[in-house]
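step: validate -> pass
step: tokenize input -> pass
step: predict -> running
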Amino acid sequence: MTFYRFVAINYPSNFYMKKVIYFFTLLILLISCSKDEVIPIIPEPSLLANPVAEKINDERSTGVYKGILVGSTGYLEIKLKHKDTITSALLVIDDKEYRFKTTEIEKVDGNTYITKLNFESGRNFFSFSVQSNGKNPSISDLFLEDISTPIETFIFKETSTELVRCFVGTYEGDEKGTFNFLTKGSLVGGLVKQEGVTSVNSMYGNLYVEGGTILGTVVDKWKFTGETIKYRKNEDVIKGNWENDTQKGTFTTKRKL
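step: predict -> pass
step: emit ->
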């Protein structure tokens, strides 16, 4: 027969409390490590090579609109009854997302001039207007509670055959600042804001291909009259040179949309 000897051990009164604290501390550390190991790295969204706009909306006020912003810097996308159901807006300003919705869906029928369609996101809001054929889209009354600087926008409508690309960047040289632009087929439009200056200058012109390089000559609305923008076709990171009669420098932009 086997005899077992039980020995009574007198632990300090706080022994069990220490064990409990140690156990839960270890458990929290293990959970934290496990979470760190399984959290995936979220990649940047892929940039589209083809338009998402539908042919039925090409000559209507409904569809997909994309644009750039300068004041703070960023880009935007507005969808009006895209694929019959989606009406929403996304503004990305200084890398912060603002997602908007509208309750005035009755204004969006695709056949009439849209005047001040109101979008809201909490206390933030703006109005969107566009002609019945999708021409001259514009934003007004933009208010963002955490941004005090005035913001200018430049918007193109995307069609089923012409993708709109939005680029965000900076320029430097004899002066420096923000330079954002967008392209659609043979068109280029952009906004320029010199550092330390509140006013924003716009540019608009045509693109043409020469030796694998796109050259966009801007109109006199931009402060660098006659400036030529040079960059390689269809790249997502675009660098180039700017110059006018008295100033010159370089610019760097990255496609965001």
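step: describe -> The helical segments are 15-38.
step: cleanup -> pass
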